[in-house]
Design a protein that fits this description.
alpha+beta; Alpha-Beta Plaits
C-alpha cells in the first residue's frame, strides 16, 4: 500500500470543472487531475436522471485528502458532489515520488 490515492468527482462540463481543478493544483492539494466525458445515471429527488458529465480523477496523497475533500466541497457547485477516495495499492516509484513532491 502507498500514501497515494485517487479522488473521483463529477461536474456538468469542463468549463465548470476547470476553475476547481486550477485551485486544487495551485493550492498543492492535487498533483495531477484528469477529465473524461461520461454519461451518469442516478436518482435525484425521486427521478431517474441520465446526464452527460465530466468525470474528474484527482491524484493526491492520503495525508492531503482531508484538506482536499474540504476544499472540493467548498468549491463544488453541486448540492451533493461525488467525492470518493480510492487508495492506490502500488505504482511506479518515480510517479509516486512526483505526486508526493507536488502535494503539500
Amino acid at each position: 500500500m502507498t500514501d497515494a490515492c485517487v479522488v473521483l468527482t463529477t461536474f456538468e462540463n469542463r468549463d465548470q470543472a476547470r476553475p476547481v481543478i486550477d485551485a486544487l493544483i495551485s493550492e498543492r492539494l492535487a498533483a495531477c487531475v484528469q477529465m473524461m466525458d461520461i454519461e451518469s445515471s442516478y436518482t435525484w429527488q425521486g427521478v431517474v436522471e441520465h446526464e452527460p458529465e465530466v468525470l474528474v480523477l484527482i491524484k493526491t496523497t492520503t495525508a492531503v485528502y482531508p484538506m482536499l475533500e474540504k476544499r472540493l466541497a467548498e468549491l463544488h457547485p453541486y448540492d451533493v458532489p461525488e467525492i470518493l477516495q480510492i487508495p492506490v495499492a502500488s505504482g511506479s516509484r518515480a510517479y509516486l515520488a512526483w505526486m508526493a513532491e507536488n502535494t503539500r
